[in-house]
Amino acid sequence: MAAGDNDLQGCRFVGMSAVNAGQGRRLGELLTSLRNLAGMTQEELAGVSGLSARSISDLERGRVARPRRRSLELLAAALDLDPAQAKALIAIARGAPARWPDRAASGTPGTTEHKPLQLTVTPRQLPGVTSGFVGRSAGLATLSEWLGSAARADQPVTIVTIAGAAGVGKTTLAIRWGHQVAEHFPDGQLWLNLRGFTPAATPLSPAEAIRALLDALHVPPDQIPVTLDAQAGMYRSLLAGRRVLVVLDNARDTGQVRPLLPGSPGCLVVVTSRDKLVGLAATNGARLLHLKLLSAAEARQLLEGRLGRNRLAAEPDAADELIRLCAGLPLALGITAARASATPNLRLADLAVQLRDTQTRLDVLDGGDAPSSLRAVYFCSYRQLSPETARLFRLLGLHPGPDISAAAAASLAARPLRQVHQALTRLTEAHLLTEQAPGRYTCHDLLRVYAQELAHTTGSEPGREAAIGRMLDHYLHTAHSATVVLRPSREPITPAPPRPGVTPEQPAGDQHAIAWFEAEHHVLLAAVALAASTGFDVHAWQIPWAMADFLDWRGYWHQQVAVQHIAVAAAARLGDTGGHAEARRLLAKPYTRLGDYDQARAHHAACLELYQQTGDRAGQARAHQSLAWANERQGRLGDALGHAGQAHRLYEAIGHQAGQARSLNNIGYCHAQLGHYQQAQSCCEQALSLWRQVGDRNGEAATWDSLGYAEHHLGHHAQALSCYQHALRIFRELGDRYYEAATLTHLGDTRHASAELQLAREAWQQALAILDDLRHPDASQVRAKLASTDKPGPLESAARPEQHTGERG
Asked: Can you give the pTM of this predicted structure?
């Protein structure tokens, strides 16, 4: 309803005699008029006065002939009546004739009629549009779509929240869109900075905010009620029946916004906040728009608008680096552009050098005052956190990234998972973190730098070291458990017990273990580098050991070379001969995969020598096993068979079943390569029996592949196909992409030999897609097979597929 439509109408009815209206009716009409003037519902008046909503309903309907004096006094206080008005209310309730005193008369009886409140000036409070506005076309379109749908549905009031990280451009977007749609709100546009996250300022209280809005609506001070609820009621009454755009900028939380919401159709409220304000969506039906970082193209457009296209074109690489270092954050890009504009002779490359140093990056991103200082802007978000949530945010600054799971965060903080989940949720709501996948959290580089700074300026060095140790323990022990699940027969290492507060994850099976490695593999690589740089050398060689199979199966051989070099150096620093030997062996493996046989040979030789020094026969057997595989890869079948035989003898001597199975598989495959197919068949069948006893599915798959090769060359094509299908199923379940491709290649060879040309091509094409994705040189051999099927004549390479012993380290 419009302001003043249901006010006291001069309270002319007060002078009516009892003959024209009963005492209860007179009081009811008066109360109804006073409540409407205050802009309150019966429930709101009940909440303020302490009476029940039913009592107020009975009074307004004239059902109470003589109410208690105390009830009338409570109502007078709730309606913000002055002493003369309160006295008149009680008199009218008692049936005495009385005139309603005007508030301006200060208690002096009179007949002045109350004038309805009206909007005397149409507010146009939106700030000017910021120059250089770029991107956000999708956000503008979404906001306009929501406005249109709200208008069609005639919703009571439309609420839109624009949420996002500090400096992402929420206010700029709200103002830009507000100007675009201003014509839809002819009764005015209100804008209020709630100062929820304003540097060097405290957030507006609801009372301050309501008073500011009433002032903006030009309500005379003498007509503004005293109580907050009455002021909120007046504010809603003034907006009732009108089309007004209300922009509430920089809100701290839902509680700061709710008292400022209009209550009738026609108005639109746009709220910007670093908090997600989920409560507004849950209880008020607000639409939530999450504002993300600028894309690289949008960031370049912003810099071009500030610095000119020619300046960026003169230093394209430096411009790209500035965009990356500013993480697509508009505020950071604006500060960077301002620095470059203030010093025209400053090379962008020099500015990039200044930003490159994480220890000084926030110093560079400081425009000289609090609103243009990234550190100050972030502090406004940080200071709103509870002590426990703030502690977790600081600790996350110690994490190497790129993201972290809730379980790892619990170990880092030495807190129960449920408590950490709550803190992570709060950090996400405050846009200090992003939940990029269920249970996985990240933040952009500038926020990470701020968290790192807090981590190193708050608390003690021993506390930071303990937290890093817990985090590395979490990754080591979980990775160790996962690799044991995938390779139960692998010779284990024995990590030291985890520190107090660490709760490692326990993968439940192959698929869970593979999924964990997939999710964490970039984190593990970063953790290895962090361990080496912070003195945790045990973790620096044992984490690479635990992730070796996964990196090999996925074809991440260059990454494996990098982390195994770290592992070799760390084990050497520790003086751990066994760890040093194993790290050398695992380093030789990716070099062999990549065809760098000189490097592989050197590390194999060093590995064998170290194991011989310690008298570790199991280690020596593993070294010979790896040498057998490396020689077979080079086509040196005699040497390969010799090393495989030495490995088998050593494994037999110590009663190592899994080792015997692995060496028998290698011996069998070498025999097959030499044309001794029945010997190969016998060795592989023995190996299969042993694999089943030890429960190693990876070794079983490799042996099925070797047996299939022997069966193929014995002319048993149906048996060969069955063997390859067994191997293929297991390799796929384990995520071993390279050997999936190798087995598909062998499968295609057998299909071709069986004159199933189309099926052969399909198998080779699948293998080629994997090998091309892995950028593996074996792809050329498969490509040649496919090419040969386009020509008449036998398949030249069908008799000798890729060399593969099934060696798994």
From this structure: 0.76
